[in-house]
Amino acid sequence: MVLGKKEKVLMNVVYAAASGSPGGQCLISPVELLSRISYSVDFREGDLEETLNKLMLDNYFVYEKAKKLNGDLMYVITLKDNGISYLRDKEVSRRKLIIRIALTIAIAALSFSIKFILEAIFG
Amino acid sequence: MLNEKIMSVFDAVMKYLSAGEYVVVPKSDVREALDGALTQSEIDASMNALQMNELVQIRYADSEVYCLTVLPKGIREDERREEQREEQRRKEALIAAENERKAAIAAAEAAAAEAKTDPANELDADTDDVNSEAEKEKSVEKAQSTESSVMQFNYKKAAIICGLSAFLGAFFAGILTLIIILSKVG
Questions:
Q1: Is residue B37 part of a domain?
Q2: DSSP one-letter code for A60
Q3: What is the pLDDT of residues A52-90, one digit of tens each?
Q4: Do residue A76 and residue B67 have CB atoms under 8 angstroms apart?
Q5: Is A62 an interface residue toward B (CB < 8 Å)?
């Protein structure tokens, strides 16, 4: 699945938080999620729930809202199939991209060198 | 069915829970509420038992917190237990009132007996007898009145008051109507 920039950034944070536990779960506050996103990405507080919902629709995880005893909001996030295989999928897609780029360069180089090959054969 | 140990854990967590929302409850708070009667592993086992019996649903648990909510069956069970506790409190209050009444009667009887057997006060024995009888009756009446106030609502009185008020209201409404009609005719 092709993710947007904000989705990728948030998914990286969620995966790092949840993949450590055996059930693929984590209990995390909105503030903590936002604090783990780098400042180079323009990610606002209002974008958080929207992006979480998009990732939930794409079957990366499910999340529930919970309240602490002092009233603070928390998210309980449980990774689903796509979320559990997120890192693996990322590596696979990177490898595919590298192979495609290498193939493209090779074909371009071959196309360029055909002229010299033909010259060498037919003088 | 679930044993008292498990239900004590249920009572301890129900203080924090409300229907329809997940609450993050620290495990230390649950231990404190149980006054250290159970170890953490016993509490965890009890929580699993509560979940299996569909009283609560645990969404997340780690070494420090539970994130859980109460299910409808748990709400009904909590209400039932609250009613039982209320019933028990009422019974204890009645027993205490009864004991007080008995103690008052016994004290009055003892005072009367003491006055009777004392030779130096033989001349005053009659007046003392009368006084002690009166006191005895008073204490019995007081105990009975507290009991009746605790026990009964006077339905007869309430019915008489309601009937009288209805009659008076209708009577005055009739008089008013008559006056208006007479004034219009006149």
A1: yes
A2: S
A3: 999 999 999 999 999 999 999 999 999 998 888 888 888
A4: yes
A5: no
Parallel, antiparallel, or unpaired: how do β-strands B56-61 and B22-26 relate?
unpaired
List pLDDT tens digits, range B70-86: 999 999 999 999 999 99
**Is-above-0.95 flag for pTM?**
no
Partner residue opposite B59 with nearest CB, options A64, A67, A69: A64
Cα separation, A2 vs B47, in Å, equals 41
Total residue length of chain A: 123
- Residue B170 lies in domain: 154-186
ipTM of the complex: 0.72
Q: Which listed CATH number (1.20.120.1810, 3.30.1360.10, 3.90.1150.10, 1.10.10.10) goes with A5-122?
A: 1.10.10.10
Residue B128: pLDDT band with limits 50, 70, 90: low
Which of B13, B17, B22 is the mutation pick for testing A, counting most A CBs within 10 A?
B22
